[in-house]
Structure formats: structure tokens, C-alpha cells
Amino acid sequence: MATELIIATTNKGKINEFKQLLEGEGTIVKSLLDYQTISDIPETGVTFHENAAIKAETLCRLLNRTVIADDSGLEIDALNGEPGVYSARYAGEQKDDQANIDKVLHELQDVPEGQRTARFVCVMAVAQPDEETIFFKGQFEGAIATSRQGENGFGYDPIFYVPALGKTAAELTSDEKNERSHRGKAIQELLKYKNLFDL
Ligand SMILES: O=c1nc[nH]c2c1ncn2[C@H]1C[C@H](O)[C@@H](COP(=O)(O)OP(=O)(O)OP(=O)(O)O)O1
Ligand SMILES: [Mg+2]
């Protein structure tokens, strides 16, 4: 039987990346979209670690199975690290990617090119029944562009400029993004520490 990895997320962009990063011979990825009867898990924490733990531990308890969660966001230096943990709801509770991007571009309208540095942060929590939750982290350094470029990815990708490649994250192929992204790096750390079949 295939190993099922359960990710406590409803974000389709994340789910696609988890599938590209982890699925293969004998391993399939499931998400909250496969457990429609489970209601939304409120993210009441004030740090990525707290929210990742809340999501992973809540679903772990409900299913009595190992669960992975990803809490991530965009830290913009000129905004003192905002929107950070609040990235998904930056422009309101409706979690609208386009409205969030518009708000970032507006906030940064007078910030010159050299001062638009930012990073994506991902904290991944692995919750297992009767064990301490463990955490893995990844960061992806870049800068905020002045307009949208590219169609790939999700969330803030169209305005996240990757200097080394001269493209936004939304102009990268999924392999190019996964090799260097916050989520890709957190998964690499997880896999250094744990075999997928132990999850
Ligand atoms: O690679 C990324 N490329 C672009 N944007 C990204 C990325 N990674 C995180 N982000 C943004 C999306 C969202 O605005 C926030 C995550 O918020 P976060 O609460 O972790 O996820 P979510 O609410 O969309 O789904 P869920 O909590 O069900 O996993 O950061
Ligand atoms: Mg969320």
C-alpha cells in the first residue's frame, strides 16, 4: 500500500508544490481538501511556529495519524517584516491574493529599488500521535517588484523578484521554484531528518 502523507492545508498552490516535492513511487499526498468534513482550523498564533503547530496538531488529533503543516508568509524589510504571519489575510479575511498584492505594491510605492528586499519564510510542523511536534524552516530571499510578472505559482509569486535568476517567482518553472524556495528548503531539511516512510 502507498504511504499517505497528510498535509493540513487547504491552499491549492501549496498542495501542488507538496505533490511535486514529495509524491513518487509509493507516496501520495493528501490535504484538508480530501477531508471535507473537517472545518477550517483557526490560525490564532502570532508566529509561524505557533500556527504550523496548531494546524498539524489539530488534524493529527482528529485523525490519530502523522500530519505535516506549513505556515508561511512574506517578510518585507521596509515594512518591518510585515505582512509576515498575517500574509494570507493582509488585505482582509477573504484571503484574496490579488488584493494582498495590490496592498503590498501600494505600501511600497515610494520605496526605491535597493530597499525592497524581502523573503518568504516557511515553517513546517510534523505532528505525530504521542510525540513532540518537530519543526523545519526554510527561507527564500528576494525583493518586491514594482508590478506583476508571470503566471506560475500562487500567492505573492508575481511580485516576488528573484535577483539570481532575474525573474519573479511566477516566471519560474515549478522545478526552479522548488529547488530554491522556502517550502522546498524546509522539505529538504525534513527529509534529511526523517524518511518519508517513517511518517
Ligand atoms: O511560495 C509562495 N508563493 C507565494 N506566496 C506564498 C508562498 N508561500 C506562502 N505564500 C503566501 C500565501 C499566503 O498569503 C501566505 C501563507 O499563509 P498560510 O496561512 O501559511 O497559508 P494559507 O492560509 O493560504 O493556507 P493553509 O493555512 O490552509 O495552509 O503566504
Ligand atoms: Mg492559513
UniProtKB/TrEMBL annotation:
<protein>
    <recommendedName>
        <fullName>dITP/XTP pyrophosphatase</fullName>
        <ecNumber>3.6.1.66</ecNumber>
    </recommendedName>
</protein>
<keyword id="KW-0546">Nucleotide metabolism</keyword>
<keyword id="KW-0460">Magnesium</keyword>
<dbReference type="InterPro" id="IPR029001">
    <property type="entry name" value="ITPase-like_fam"/>
</dbReference>
<feature type="binding site">
    <location>
        <position position="71"/>
    </location>
    <ligand>
        <name>Mg(2+)</name>
    </ligand>
</feature>
<feature type="binding site">
    <location>
        <begin position="154"/>
        <end position="157"/>
    </location>
    <ligand>
        <name>substrate</name>
    </ligand>
</feature>
<keyword id="KW-0479">Metal-binding</keyword>
<dbReference type="InterPro" id="IPR002637">
    <property type="entry name" value="RdgB/HAM1"/>
</dbReference>
<comment type="subunit">
    <text>Homodimer.</text>
</comment>
<dbReference type="InterPro" id="IPR020922">
    <property type="entry name" value="dITP/XTP_pyrophosphatase"/>
</dbReference>
<comment type="function">
    <text>Pyrophosphatase that catalyzes the hydrolysis of nucleoside triphosphates to their monophosphate derivatives, with a high preference for the non-canonical purine nucleotides XTP (xanthosine triphosphate), dITP (deoxyinosine triphosphate) and ITP. Seems to function as a house-cleaning enzyme that removes non-canonical purine nucleotides from the nucleotide pool, thus preventing their incorporation into DNA/RNA and avoiding chromosomal lesions.</text>
</comment>
<feature type="binding site">
    <location>
        <begin position="9"/>
        <end position="14"/>
    </location>
    <ligand>
        <name>substrate</name>
    </ligand>
</feature>
<dbReference type="Pfam" id="PF01725">
    <property type="entry name" value="Ham1p_like"/>
</dbReference>
<feature type="binding site">
    <location>
        <begin position="182"/>
        <end position="183"/>
    </location>
    <ligand>
        <name>substrate</name>
    </ligand>
</feature>
<dbReference type="GO" id="GO:0036220">
    <property type="term" value="F:ITP diphosphatase activity"/>
</dbReference>
<feature type="active site" description="Proton acceptor">
    <location>
        <position position="71"/>
    </location>
</feature>
<feature type="binding site">
    <location>
        <position position="177"/>
    </location>
    <ligand>
        <name>substrate</name>
    </ligand>
</feature>
<feature type="binding site">
    <location>
        <position position="72"/>
    </location>
    <ligand>
        <name>substrate</name>
    </ligand>
</feature>
<keyword id="KW-0378">Hydrolase</keyword>
<comment type="similarity">
    <text>Belongs to the HAM1 NTPase family.</text>
</comment>
<keyword id="KW-0547">Nucleotide-binding</keyword>
